[in-house]
TrEMBL record, chains A, B:
This is Aminotransferase. Its cofactor is pyridoxal 5'-phosphate. Keywords: Aminotransferase, Pyridoxal phosphate, Transferase. It comes from Devosia crocina. Pathway: Amino-acid biosynthesis. PROSITE patterns: AA_TRANSFER_CLASS_1 (PS00105).
Length: 368, 368
């Protein structure tokens, strides 16, 4: 019997989940995690004012959201001192990445990224029939020199850099990033993922320059703002590129409560400052727990710490699995040589205590 | 200076908003609407249990949503008596339509629909380089015979039918729909949009048959369930097609509160039954207001009533604009001959009173 045929591109795609959710693992293990510190969420949560805003807005949930995200877009433009049509809102950075790829990557077009960088971006590129080119990390950093050199040689449509970096937590300062930007051909779009930007040391992010016609910067409410569940990310850049989202986006895609929650989060910068101190403190706790167990923790400019387990990827995976059995959810990079690390997200004291208790047991089980 | 080139398809697309939101009109007019009865939202709102669920879940908003939508998918499968992998959740029916088009419509591929049917679907088809073919409505109904005949002749990749219909509010019974389904070539996907399905007379929707390999049914929490702001729709059909969403969807796209809200809404079928009575009552009020003003209201199986303004599209547009100036938000079909109607959504008594007061003034202004 003839079946409706998929497009040529869709026919070849696998069914996949770029990240297995902790809920799936909990269902498989048959019990909830004691410490959910694997998805770089913020267990410190959002500002209490955000929760009030959500509860206040709930009664309006029968209304469609504003498809122009007008209030939030204008608030972000004011905050970043750019024009309202230089910012676009999407269903998380993941959703925005899908749109960027759709706008710029046709079948066979190349996106250049680092081997071991954000897998969801790769999912989108493959999903639109694009081709991925990789350069390796230089140690624990994305290799800006190698990326710039490859961009000049391969002439990709897009080059991707995350700063601060995920999954390693490292970062480059503004001079290194600006030097990198200057070396990328003008017809290659630079996708600068700053999802962890609020958590980097002050002065890390280069000033916004929306006159740069090939630079798009992505930001998130999921990390420092503690709103991973609400699905709001935003893109900033020149009008030509930001406006193009209006050619392809799901206009009513950003939920009404999400818009209100993001507005309230942005307005409470005092809370953001306070939570950054908590996150810093928690990074120190993770570092100390790692050291107590003979492992070395990398410096981090994010809300997670990459911990070097000191042997190969298989060994790090064993530790991760033992931790899961002990009720601790963490994740790890999948690509050598990064894969000898596990990636532990910050969290409140009870989560850190659970980690501290589980870690020696996980290591000793993995050692056997 | 060279600019990053868009893909061939994206280059040709216009920036657009398929539906201008009432908020945009309010910003233009400089004041809020008194009656928001234009977007087929449900001013009766969702179940109070939904609002409780949202407020209870707010504290968990720092966690990413479950990317598998496991609980909601299983609840819907149980409710509809199908398998959990025969249902997929998306960011509203709009989001799901985008995915279906992406999976089945490549450059030049044809989607067959009715002239004047849902514009957002057309937006997606154009957005993926597809080609639209249209048949006209037969009076106030989508013309199932003409669609089936054109499907046999044009061999489109997808044929689209809404039942009940938007923007006219008409419907076909199960025999007519099943006869239509049987006439569509097996390699053509039937996209059956049942966003208003809960509001049709009992027995209108044909029984679910996920063994039919070319039938996909779309449902929404935006209409009868009163949750337009939460952005949850779902698709039901054979495993091959429903599973394919996992090749292309934004896995973390459905917000955490949205999943909880939809679960609570589905669980409160008593509220749904009660609100259906209110909606029926409101349809009668709209019909009466139309008649009092010398206009004829069409029968409706939805949460809106199409009102025939009796002359041409320009006249109906004048009435709509006068209503807007009087604080009443309604919409209208854009395509002749449907465009001589205005489409008024149901609402609570204050909204109906405002409509009743404004309608004679709008008509008399339009008559001048």
């Amino acid at each position: 019997m003839p079946l409706p045929p998929f497009t040529e591109i869709a026919e070849k795609l696998p069914e996949t989940v770029p990240f297995v959710g902790p809920e799936s693992i909990e269902r498989r293990l048959g019990r909830p995690f004691k410490a959910r510190i694997g998805a770089n969420e913020s267990g410190f949560g959002p500002s209490p004012k955000v929760l009030s805003a959500i509860r206040d807005a709930a009664g309006d949930i029968w209304k469609y959201p504003d498809p122009e995200n007008h209030e939030l877009r204008h608030a972000l433009a004011g905050f970043h001192k750019i024009a309202p049509d230089e910012v676009s809102i999407g269903e998380g950075v993941d959703g925005l990445m899908g749109l960027v790829v759709r706008l710029f990557i046709g079948p066979g077009d190349v996106l250049l990224t680092s081997h071991g960088a954000y897998p969801t971006l790769n999912y989108h590129v493959v999903g639109f029939g694009g081709r991925l080119e990789f350069v390796p990390y230089a140690g624990v950093h994305e290799d800006l020199d190698a990326l710039a050199e490859a961009a000049q040689r391969l002439r990709p449509r897009i080059v991707y850099v995350a700063n601060p970096d995920n999954p390693m937590g490292s970062y480059w300062g503004p001079e290194a990033i600006q030097d990198f930007i200057a070396r990328i051909p003008e017809d290659c779009l630079i996708m600068l993922d700053e999802a962890y930007g609020e958590l980097a040391p002050a002065g890390t992010l280069p000033p916004l320059d929306t006159a740069r016609t090939n630079l798009l910067r992505l930001r998130s409410f999921s990390k420092a703002y503690g709103l991973a569940g609400i699905r709001v990310g935003y893109a900033m850049g020149p009008r030509r590129i930001v406006g193009a989202f209006n050619r392809v986006r799901n206009h009513f895609g950003v939920n009404r409560l999400a818009q209100q929650a993001a507005l309230a989060a942005l307005a409470d910068q005092d809370y953001l400052a306070a939570v950054k101190t908590q996150i810093e403190q928690s990074r120190k706790q993770i570092t100390q727990i790692a050291q107590e167990n003979g492992l070395s923790a990398l410096p981090s400019a994010t809300n997670f710490v990459a911990v070097d387990c000191g042997r190969d990827g298989a060994y790090a995976t064993r530790i991760l699995e033992e931790l899961a059995h002990l009720g601790i959810f963490v994740r790890k990079p999948g690509v050598p040589p990064l894969d000898r690390h596990i990636r532990i997200s910050v969290g409140p004291n009870p989560e850190m205590a659970a980690l501290s208790e589980a870690m020696p047991r996980a290591i000793s089980a993995a050692d056997q």
